[in-house]
Amino acid sequence: MMFFFFLHIRKCINSVTSVVHLILTGFLGFRSEESRRGLFGVLLTTYLLILLGNFILILIFACDRLLHTPMYVLICGLAVLDIGITTTIMPTMLISVPFVPCFMQMIFHMGLFTTECFHLALMAYDRYLAICKPLYYPNLMYNTHALKLMACCWMAGFFFATSCVTLVLRFPFCRPITINNCFCDIVSLLFLACGDIFITGYILLLVGLSVTFIPLLYILFSYVRITSSVLRIPSSKGRMKAFYTCGTHMLVISVLFVIAIGVFISDKIPGASMDIRIVGLIMQNVFPPLMNPVIYCLRTKEIQNSFVKMLKKFRILPFSVQEY
Questions:
Q1: Are 46 and 116 in contact (CB under 8 A)?
Q2: What is the pLDDT of residues 127-140, one digit of tens each?
Q3: What are the chain's domains?
Q4: Is the pTM for the entire model greater than 0.85?
Q5: What is the strand order of the sheet 21-24 is part of?
Q6: Which of 39, 62, 183, 255 is the most buried if burial means most Cβ atoms within 10 Å?
């Protein structure tokens, strides 16, 4: 089904444009060869760290059957999304890009980002059930149910993405082929379209705000309920540990959602800096995937122990390490 959809998208693209290649300008403020090399080095190092951290998280999950529980299934699914998002949007700056691959990049980026928003809400729902309804949790959340809910997140994410792309494909593309961005996003591409794009621009804004605000509001609601339950924990040490874990998670979520909302709104603000928007897009797509393995791997005792077991199993640690 997905194959036929992409064939349809390609046919629509060929029917609305004669553009062969697009130019990605990258950062307008980084034009010198030295600054571009420095930026490339930073982004490449960050990308490799994201791949390393998230692949380690997936490998730990695959090697330890004790982690095959709904919470860790969701964490593993988040790692897959983080790898997919960063791999989709890490282009080489200042190059020409074929038009069809640019559209494919836009679809996958939108679909994966929207899926991650819904996935984070699903993770908050899982933690809400585990902390606030522990007696009902085994009946309400189990592995197959978690996988079905994850599949629903993916379908919803790509449904919104394909709907937005269909709106953009209604227009012919006849303006200059330069995109003021470091990857193909739908708003930058819409600016190349000819015709009245005013209503379409606001529809895209409404969709973007909906797929960020609705999951964010549910996450905040879940964490308010979780906080009220944590406050009833008699042990002060237990409360501090719970608040520390929730606090770091909320920090990453806040960066993702707040910056995403800011990027959506910046398109409608006259005189907004394009470089600031590009920085926001990079932070939105790079910072959470970089920090998620740290939060879920280094801050979770079960994953720490599994990581040590895996190192000993593959003889990476030649000596005995006590599990903590």
A1: no
A2: 889 888 888 999 99
A3: 2-311 (1.20.1070.10)
A4: yes
A5: 96-98, 21-24, 178-179
A6: 183
